[in-house]
């Protein structure tokens, strides 16, 4: 088995370093973390050559981001590495909340059937990065350069010129577009004189990865003010390889250096295990870190030819697993738009919608994260009294459970106000509004084989879902073909049990059509479209109209 934490990737001199003038590349991505790698793979699958620069030659150290949501797994499926992530990761959907030492309620994040992927998997970030690096290595359009640090940038109307530092000296590289995926301490953000603004939380948390042979259920456990860690909160998650992630709230006055020492971590973990009936279980500490965090973002995610994604653009508290998941969704949004602009299928203005849509999503994530942090770490006596009263009521009163906030877990933003949406002309019910990420469902293909709806969506094109059979469905299918636009058409037969579920999920009748963007977000829907409707909607989604 590969030890992804000990991997070291070779620096290799590139011919661009010897060029008399800066070599030009359509897209240069800075930062080979989960976001940069996702973006690079997505672009390569859309036939866009990519240079990916990383300032060191290793994967992340320690588990870091571990909680990957259903929508992120669906993105990884489209990139060709979702199965590997799910097979290695620990799937879960049940969470339990404790006040003092008593369980006050449990929740199930995925109670309905008909989804291929679980609500979440827990998988150490170094595995996610390692699998993405290996997927990138299989794609010839990705040029991944380790130990290539960007130290300068000069923007022009038609692109940007980067100064890149390597072990063998500096060189310059020209890019049509630059994607800044270089993390919370983004060097590119600093080089452009930009900053992320928001709220910094005066608290400290200890993260510890521990390995133990304890037969605990695979679930999320969150304690408020337990006897083994009084006055603070604790979070416990299972990861791959028999590893467990524990988060201990420490308070602002805690000494980060002292708290990271094994002799100080051990008694905290021991007290936790003793309290849940595992006094005899032995454990080993693998990695630990003490962190503070902020909820903040850049004012704008686009600056000329530079587009910011992931932690370089926005940051949230870890409660709710909104950091890495929102970053992957940034990449999911940006890739198809860059590809369309570079192919001449859309104007440069389409990239403005990347900024507006993902700024909206960042604001939503920041609101949820801020509220969760305020509930978990109340900063006044009144706030603590309110929180404890809510928790005390939770066990017996359902209304109180809606007020408990141990982290509203990551779901994709519904881009209702996106300029790329076509407003409904017909009446629909349900969640699949324009701007929503398409919901998965089992379907039966035209050849009679069972499949998953999202697996049938084409990576490089708009997809049209045509529901039902009979005359109405055939009229819709004919209109799609007559639209004279490149479309991938998926027929969803609602006469099968699988098709009935999909039709309910989409409030579909025979002939109903849903138009999905290449990132699988709904951009238009009709009960019975005409060819002109489809043409107009696609042009609108490409910022042509």
UniProtKB/TrEMBL annotation:
> What is the designated name of this protein?
FAD-dependent oxidoreductase
Family annotation (InterPro entries): FAD-bd (IPR002938), FAD/NAD-bd_sf (IPR036188), RIFMO-like (IPR050641)
Say yes or no: keyword Zinc-finger present. no
Q: Does the keyword Flavoprotein apply?
A: yes
**Domain FAD-binding, residue spans:** 26-367
- Give the originating organism: Variovorax paradoxus
Taxonomic superkingdom: Bacteria
Ordered alphabetically, the record's keywords are: FAD, Flavoprotein
GO MF terms here are:
FAD binding; oxidoreductase activity, acting on paired donors, with incorporation or reduction of molecular oxygen, NAD(P)H as one donor, and incorporation of one atom of oxygen
Cofactor names from the entry are: FAD
């Amino acid at each position: 088995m590969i030890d992804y934490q000990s991997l070291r990737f070779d620096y290799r001199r590139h011919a661009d370093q010897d060029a008399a003038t800066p070599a030009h590349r359509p897209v240069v991505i800075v930062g080979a973390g989960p976001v940069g790698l996702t973006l690079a793979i997505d672009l390569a699958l859309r036939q866009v050559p990519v240079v990916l620069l990383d300032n060191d030659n290793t994967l992340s150290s320690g588990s870091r981001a571990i909680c990957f949501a259903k929508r992120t797994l669906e993105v990884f499926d489209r990139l060709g590495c979702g199965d590997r992530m799910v097979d290695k990761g620990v799937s879960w959907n049940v969470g339990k909340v404790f006040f003092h030492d008593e369980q006050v309620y449990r929740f199930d994040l995925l109670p309905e059937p008909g989804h291929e992927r679980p609500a979440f998997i827990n998988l150490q970030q170094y595995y996610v990065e390692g699998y993405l690096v290996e997927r990138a290595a299989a794609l010839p359009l990705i040029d991944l350069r380790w130990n290539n640090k960007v130290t300068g940038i000069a923007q022009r109307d038609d692109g940007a010129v980067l100064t890149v530092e390597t072990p063998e000296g500096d060189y310059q590289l020209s890019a049509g577009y630059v994607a800044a995926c270089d993390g919370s301490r983004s060097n590119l953000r600093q080089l452009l004189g930009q900053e992320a603004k928001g709220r910094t939380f005066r608290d400290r948390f200890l993260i510890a990865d521990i390995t133990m042979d304890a037969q605990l259920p695979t679930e999320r456990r969150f304690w408020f003010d337990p006897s083994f860690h009084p006055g603070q909160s604790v979070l416990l998650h299972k990861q791959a390889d028999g590893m467990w992630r524990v988060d201990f709230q420490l308070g602002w006055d805690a000494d980060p250096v002292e708290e990271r020492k094994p002799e100080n971590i051990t008694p905290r973990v021991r007290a936790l295990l003793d309290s849940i009936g595992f006094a005899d279980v032995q454990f080993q500490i693998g990695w630990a870190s003490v962190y503070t965090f902020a909820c903040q973002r850049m004012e704008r995610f686009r600056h000329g030819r530079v587009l910011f994604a992931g932690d370089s653009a926005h940051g949230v508290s870890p409660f709710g697993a909104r950091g890495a998941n929102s970053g992957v969704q940034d990449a999911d949004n940006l890739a198809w738009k860059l590809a369309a602009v570079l192919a001449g299928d859309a104007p440069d203005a389409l990239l403005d919608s990347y900024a507006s849509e993902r700024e909206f999503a960042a604001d939503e994530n920041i609101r949820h994260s801020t509220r969760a942090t305020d509930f978990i770490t109340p900063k006044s006596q009144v706030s603590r009294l309110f929180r404890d009263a809510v928790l005390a009521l939770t066990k017996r009163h359902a209304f109180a459970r809606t007020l408990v906030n141990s982290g509203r877990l990551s779901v994709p933003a519904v881009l209702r106000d996106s300029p790329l949406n076509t407003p409904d002309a017909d009446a629909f019910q349900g969640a699949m509004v324009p701007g929503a990420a398409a919901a998965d469902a089992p379907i039966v293909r035209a050849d009679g084989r069972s499949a998953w709806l999202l697996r049938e969506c084409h990576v490089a094109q708009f997809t049209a879902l045509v529901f039902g059979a009979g005359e109405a469905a055939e009229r819709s299918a004919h209109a799609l073909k007559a639209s004279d636009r490149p479309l991938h058409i998926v027929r969803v037969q609602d006469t099968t049990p699988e098709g009935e579920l999909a039709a309910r999920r989409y409030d579909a009748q025979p002939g109903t059509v849903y138009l999905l963007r290449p990132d699988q977000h709904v951009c238009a829907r009709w009960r019975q479209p005409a060819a002109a409707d489809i043409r107009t909607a696609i042009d609108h989604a490409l910022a042509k109209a």
